[in-house]
Structure to design on (431 residues):
């Protein structure tokens, strides 16, 4: 009985999750008549939302000198690619 | 003590080695103060849990996290206190590519999602760990040995990730671990905000036992909520927890939107009695509800009320905490 309830619960969550297909709108992009260019920082923001924000919010402030090590730390934790790390670096520390 | 000094010396040398490199070592982690009333017994815990990340070029990384806390509790004659210090991980990572990272040293046991992702004091929504947390993470939540992890296959829309490990038995202070082997593997769909997976651990010392687990995390892109859940089974018993919250607000959120309601329900069903399994002796259910309020400068106020249903042990549990997320680079030359 307990196992059956667990299975029903798991199937319900999976079905519901995969039924949601529309990605969330970007919070920082402005309204455009044409789609905004997919530059590195936009990709970085999307990556942050999809990977990092699963567990935590962005820091209120982050020193550009700290970003690289933090991203390397998270590359191991969140299975990020090298290019993801670069995109997130541009998003979190635009001046680097 | 000597071992701790040797470790500190090693990390300082590693930090000096990286002086002037593009990747600067970082001290991060969390600190906080937790006040708890559990069945009328009050306790207070000042906590600091620093994390060090020391990159050695682009491929190697040394990571470490400690947890230092004073446990202050009421006695018949007033208050007493006890000091706890633990090294949760100290690992060397070799990032071969996205498919494989090789880790050696002491690392967090990859079972489910709670131990690896949600334990930091500044991340967890409830200061009390789930009841089933000891399943699959014996004996300390940390393992001493080697681990491989990465993505078996994937693209921008989906990834199949994994972590597999072997741990040796150790009774050395600060490096206590059990002899065990296991894995966690999951499917992650970034655009849907959904991940689900399974975990397995074979505990290989004393009484050999299997632990299995399921987990799911869902942040629907169109609705500002997040749901996390785990189920775990072992010969000691089985149980689950499910936690819901509004989406974590970003740093530009208005004062009202910085409030994040949270709730968790969990149950544990006892099977065999196994000594020192750190699980309740009888069937137990618990419901918690509360909130996080995110203040500026990485400070968070966290409060919750919980009700435990466990026969004669029914009780109320209150938690109030203030947490601070630490994040600053170790100084070096400007790039």
């Amino acid at each position: 009985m307990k196992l059956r309830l667990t299975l029903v619960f798991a199937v319900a969550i999976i079905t519901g999750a995969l039924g949601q297909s529309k990605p969330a709108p970007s919070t920082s992009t402005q309204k455009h008549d044409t789609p905004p260019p997919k530059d590195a920082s936009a990709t970085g923001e999307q990556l942050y939302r999809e990977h990092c924000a699963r567990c935590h919010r962005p820091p209120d402030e982050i020193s550009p000198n700290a970003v690289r090590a933090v991203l390397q730390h998270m590359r191991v934790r969140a299975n990020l690619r090298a290019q993801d790390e670069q995109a997130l670096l541009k998003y979190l520390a635009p001046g680097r | 003590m000597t071992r701790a000094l040797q470790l500190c010396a090693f990390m300082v040398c590693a930090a000096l080695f990286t002086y002037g490199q593009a990747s600067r070592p970082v001290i991060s982690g969390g600190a906080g103060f937790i006040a708890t009333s559990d069945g009328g017994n009050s306790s207070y815990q000042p906590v600091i849990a620093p994390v060090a990340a020391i990159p050695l070029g682009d491929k190697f990384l040394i990571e470490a996290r400690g947890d230092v806390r004073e446990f202050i509790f009421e006695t018949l004659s007033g208050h007493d206190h006890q000091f706890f210090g633990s090294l949760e991980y100290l690992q060397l990572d070799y990032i071969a590519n996205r498919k494989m990272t090789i880790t050696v040293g002491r690392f967090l046991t990859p079972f489910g999602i709670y131990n690896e992702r949600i334990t930091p004091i500044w991340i967890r929504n409830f200061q009390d760990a789930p009841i089933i947390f000891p399943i699959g993470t014996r004996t300390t939540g940390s393992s001493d040995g080697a681990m491989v992890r990465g993505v078996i296959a994937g693209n921008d829309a989906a990834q199949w990730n994994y972590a597999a490990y072997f741990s040796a038995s150790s009774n050395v202070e600060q490096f206590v671990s059990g002899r065990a082997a296991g894995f966690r593997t999951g499917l992650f769909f970034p655009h849907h905000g959904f991940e689900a997976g399974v975990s397995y651990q074979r505990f290989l010392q004393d009484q050999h036992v299997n632990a299995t687990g399921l987990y799911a995390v869902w942040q629907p892109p169109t609705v500002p909520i997040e749901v996390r859940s785990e189920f775990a089974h072992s010969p000691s018993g089985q149980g689950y927890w499910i936690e819901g919250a509004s989406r974590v607000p970003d740093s530009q959120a208005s004062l009202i939107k910085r409030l994040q309601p949270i709730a968790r329900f969990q149950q544990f069903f006892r099977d065999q009695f196994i000594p020192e399994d750190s699980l309740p002796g009888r069937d137990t259910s618990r419901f918690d509800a509360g909130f996080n309020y995110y203040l500026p400068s990485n400070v968070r106020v966290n409060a919750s009320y919980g009700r435990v249903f466990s026969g004669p042990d029914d009780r109320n549990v209150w938690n109030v905490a203030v947490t601070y997320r630490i994040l600053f680079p170790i100084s070096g030359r400007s790039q």
Remarks:
- The interface with chain B takes residues 2, 6, 9-10, 13-14, 16-18, 20-24, 27, 50-51, 53-63, 65-66, 68-70, 72-73, 75-77, 79-82 of chain A (CB under 8 Å).
- Residues 38-96 of chain A form one domain.
- Chain A has four helices and no strands.
